[in-house]
Amino acid sequence: MPAVAAFFRRRTSLWAVAGLWTGVLLTAFNLYAAFVTYIPQYLVRNDFRLIYGSALDGWRNGYGHLYDLVAQKAAVESIGAYWSPFLNPPPLAWIATPFLLAPFDVAIVLWTVLVVGAAYFAWRVASPGGGLVRLAHLALFLGLFPTAYGLLVGQPVALVAAVVAGAWWLAEKKKPVAAGIVLSLSAVKPQLALLVPLCLLVAGHRRMFAAWLCATAVLAAAALALLGADGLQRYREALALASGWEPTRRYAIAGPLGLGPQVYVVEVLVVAVAVVAAWRQRGMGPGRPIATGLVASLLFTPYVGFQDFAMLVVAGWLLIRSGLTAFQVVLLVAGYALLELALVVLALPILAAEALLLLSLAWPAAKAPGDLRGVSGVVGGHVADDAGDRDLAEGAQRA
Fold first, then answer.
1. Nearest residue to 290 via CA among 145, 129, 118, 160
2. Helix (H, G, I), strand (E, B) or coil at 8
3. How far is CA 111 from the centre of its chain?
4. Residue 396: CB partners within 8 Å, gap ≥ 6?
5. Nearest 10 degrees: CA dihedral of 194, 225, 180, 303?
6. What is the C-alpha separation between 16 and 140, in angstroms, rounded?
7. What pLDDT is recorded for position 373?
């Protein structure tokens, strides 16, 4: 491993250029796919049609009917789009409500601008490095097909990425209450960051956790008040219906394992490993427990679309900032390749890479993560001896 680290350390600039070109080529292909397939077929392929339809349903019929599948279907088909059930929590419909002021054809453009802007914000705030290296991270982030697909079909994954990045940034600025409030906005698609608050609590970030808990309680109370008992029951029935769908389980542990008690056993193990990892991260900054929570969340949740794997890029950025071992560097590079080929390799290799990364965060290292910052510098584009990266090196040493 030291020889590998030295090899990469000597070629930092070369790998940054290679990453930039790789990302640019992948992004060019994604744009081609967008213009050939996704834009012409937006009434079928873009998921914003369901979000817009749910907001329209709630506005017309009251939010108690938000998960009334008959009312959903009527709302979506009234805009000329193809319907399938809306399963996200109410806050996503609330966010989409102002878009009802515009016709659907205009609203979908505005929504696309919003999710692309959210992805840009997440990169701007959380990505490590500077100059060419940051551009390489942006190109690789947008070029990654799960990211691009999520943006093309209007999925709210980028919104959650922006929320997590913003919460991390506020926590780094010693504003834990504001960070916790921002983190509560991950409720638009909560399974993507479900275990992040737990990891923050175990790692000692109690004020951030308390703020998240209070803000989430307010959102939950508002949702329950608007849904009512009948609306809540409809939501539970919709989730139960979706739990048996193969597409919602394809990239989750329930895909290869199947439904049954074995899934619950694995979920318990995932939570246990995440808690151990977070416990070892006490006294560190918020980045590492947040990244641990993201990786664990995607392993734990029974609902995973491959577009959700874009969150692992954000986790990778935060891990790079906190310092990586050589093994973790290899995992991040191999993991990126697996995610790009997600439609080909399917779930098992990706789940294995996620599990190894989570275990590596819990495993006691012979050296602190920051001791191998030269290796993480290759992935993040940092060389700890450079004057411009002294802050990062000092942070890695503290970690």
1. 160
2. helix
3. 18
4. 322, 323, 369, 370, 371, 373, 376, 384
5. 10
6. 10
7. 39
The residue type found at 271 is: V
Domain boundaries, the chain: 2-398
pLDDT value at residue 289: 96
CA 94 to chain centroid:
20
**The length of the chain, given as a count of residues:** 399
Q: What integer pLDDT is reported at residue 249 of this predicted model?
A: 73
Q: Mean pLDDT per 10-residue run, the chain (399 residues)? A: 53 72 86 83 86 94 92 93 90 95 95 96 92 89 94 95 97 96 96 96 96 97 93 88 71 78 90 96 92 96 89 96 89 92 87 94 62 41 34 36
Predicted local distance difference test score (pLDDT) of residue 169: 97
344: Cβ–Cβ under 8 A, 6 or more apart, which residues? Answer: none
To the nearest 10°, report the CA torsion of 220, 222, 225, 231. Answer: -60
Q: If residue 297 lies in a helix (H) or strand (E), which one and from where to where?
A: helix 287-300
| Beta-carbon count within 10 A of 55 CB | 24
Gap between the Cα atoms of 323 and 360, Å rounded: 13
The angle at the Cα of 108, spanning 79 to 121, to the nearest 5 degrees, equals 155
* Pairwise CA distance, residues 198 & 7, whole Å: 38
What pLDDT does residue 286 have?
A: 94
